Each structure stands twice: as structure tokens, then as C-alpha cells.
Amino acid sequence: IGVSVLWGVGQFIPALQGHFTPGGDIAATTDIATLLVVGVIIFSFDWKLSLASLACLPLFLGAFHFFRRHTRDASTRVQVQLAEVSSELQSALAGVKDIQANWAFRNHLRRFRERLRSLMGASVNQQLLQTLSTVAVSFIGALGPVVVLSYGTLLVLAEKLTVGQLVAFNSYLTFLFGPSQRLASLNINLQTALAAARRVFEYLDEPISDGPSRRGIPLIVRRGELAFEQLHFHYEPHRPVLRGVSFTVPGGAVAALVGPSGAGKTTVANLLIRLYRPAAGRITVDGVDIATVNVASLRLQIGIVSQDTVIFAGPIAENIAYARPGASWAEIEAAARAAGVDTFASKLPLGLQQPVGEHGVTLSLGQRQRVAIARALLKRPRILILDEATSGLDPESEAQIWEMLRARMAGRTILVITHRLLSVTDADMTFVIDGGRIVETGRPDDLLERRGVYWRLFQDQFRPEAAT
Is the pTM here over 0.85, yes or no? Predict the structure, then answer.
């Protein structure tokens, strides 16, 4: 009867496979069902021998738990080392020009070899654990029949069990070996997959500070007044970047945020467009806390041009229209002329339709920044953030860009983040940030007269001209 039941299960489960999961593999379901059926049969056959067969179960469960934990940790280390190798390779490919120019390929090759050695060591450790797991499960599985035959022999000698019953019982046990070993192997594969999945879910499970893009009230910018109130922020615990930053930019004004490198200038811009959430304090636009508004409505009304301009593979015109895919050709051309893109695009074979390659590799830094400025002009935001946006331009071109921006963005708020003080000498107001705090506020001429941080920055940049 027991053999008939097992045969029926073996025929029934594969039939379910084709019915419920076409093309799938439910061998694990078959093995679990086999274990359950065999377990019922052997306990109904002889409960004493059945308990004897479970004598090795604690060893099996201990090995299962041990290898599950260590295999997952080893697989996680493999994933981490693989990410390190990929990151090193990507950085080397991205900076190949600098590597060649500085003849630094030996250093990168050494680092890449170190990453590969670490990956190889982690992979060997993972494979060793997997092999040991298979050996341990096989060894413990082999102990079961030994215990059963030993105890069964004693029962036979005591005439409490016949030889035929012992042989039949042992035959049933053989049905457990294959499923047990396959499930143990499945556990190893599962732990490896879980380690890889955990690396992915670490990113997916990161709390989204802004929530869904449709959450919050829609923001309507009228004046464009910006108020930063007691902002505190840190990227790493106990290493604050901003320490109670407070300042206000009136609507329609051109304001400059200046300071030494690492003072927190770019962080302020990132907080304004809600790439990060402040640890304390708030930012308001026209008196509305941006933490309560629809993030899409906020970013659609803010344009940002940064030093690290992102240019996508494709035509120049497509890059300009990135923020407004539905813009007309006339609007794209007008933005290109205003930002001076036409000065170099007109010399290209296809003009504005000229492809620029991955990351705009065929364009210089200044040309990429002109494309980014044209993109911002086409978007026509109520608030414009320029984060070192003209660092790749010569002084004459920079002056022309500023004159154009003042004309095209009249009545709109412009926040200029820069360390080049000469480019913001005509700003309506200047805020000096140092050490994560606003230390000076005023017009550039007034700040020079105070001979404070702004004056020292000015001296450092223009010492030959300001030595007197």
C-alpha cells in the first residue's frame, strides 16, 4: 500500500506542474510531499523504529542552521566584492583620459587586482561552504540507516520485529534520502539567491523622504521667495554639514551663495529640490514649507544647472529639450541662441541635430554647460539654481551669459552658488557660508569693506589685483 501511495504521489505532483505552472519546476514541492507521505507511512508501520530514525534529526537541523547562516554571509561577501570590482572597473573606464594623462594605469591595475583577489577569496569560501554542506548532509543522512539497522537488529533478536519488517522499513527510508539531499541543496542555492536579493532590497527598502511624487499639496510659485530656516544636515552621523543655516532670498532677486570648498553650498541646493531631507529646520517657497508640497510641482518650477552637467547620448537639440520634451523647434533654437550653443553647433555637420556621444564626450566642459543653461532657459522655471554653472567658460563668455540670464530671467529668482566671486559682483545680495554656517550677509561691496571671510576669499582669488 505504501509503495502504491508513493507511486501515486509521483504521478500526481508532476501533473499539477503542467496545470498550474507551465514550464516551471516544482521538484521541491514533490520532495516535501514525498517526505510527508513517507513520514506518515513509517510512523504507522512502527513508531519505535521511526523515532530511532529521527535520532540524527538534531544533527541535521544543526547543520542546516549553521550552513544556512554562514552560506548567506559568504554569499553576501561575494556580492559586496563583486560590486567593488564593478565599481573599480567603471571608475577606471570613466576616467581613462586622466589615467592615461597621469600615467596612473599601474596604480589602477594594482587596485583592480586587489579587488579581484578579494572576490576570488570570497568565492572560494562560498564554494567551500557549499561543498561542506553537501558532505555534512550526506554523512548525517547515512547515519540514519545505521541507527535504524542497529536498533532494528536488536528488536529482531528480541523477536519483537521480523526480518521482513525491518527490510521493508529500511526500504521506506530510502525514499527519504533523495528528497532530503535535494532540499538541502535547495537551501544552499536559496541562501545564495537571498544574499543577492538582500543587496537589492537594501536600496529598494531605503526610506523615500519625499514619498510618492503626487503626495502633498501642489506648489504654485508666484514671487519665488526662498527662506532657509535653521537648517541642520549631515551625510554621516556626527559629521554635520549644515549647522543652523538661515537666510532669505526675496522673490525676483539674484542672490549669491559663496564660500570655500566643502562649506555646504551644494548641499543647500540639494535640500531645496528635496534630494535630501534636513535633519532639522525647514525651507519655504513663498511661505510654503516644501516638505508639505507635491515634489513634482516643486521640481517643475525649479531649474538647476550644475558644474557636473549631465549630457545624454543623442542630438544636442534633444539634450536641450530634455526638461520640455514637447517644446517646439523654434523654442529649442531660441534657447540655444540665448545660451550661445549656436556658436559651436553651427560649425558641426548636423548643427543642433549633431549627436554628442555618451556623456557628451565630443563637447568641452564649457559647451556642455551652455547646453545645460539652454535646457534651463527652455524650461523657464520660476526659480533658477546655478551651481558653478559657468566654471567652464572664459570671463568674456561668462559675462555674456550673465547678461543674457538677467534679461531672460527678469522677475524670477536666481540663486548662484559659486566660488568665483568675480562672476557675482553685481548680485543683489550675497550670503557667505563657512563651516556649515552663514557667517556674512550683504552686498558684495559692503562685504569687502567689512574685511571678513568674503574679503579673505576675494584676496585669495585676486591677490595680484587687490594687493594694495
Answer: no
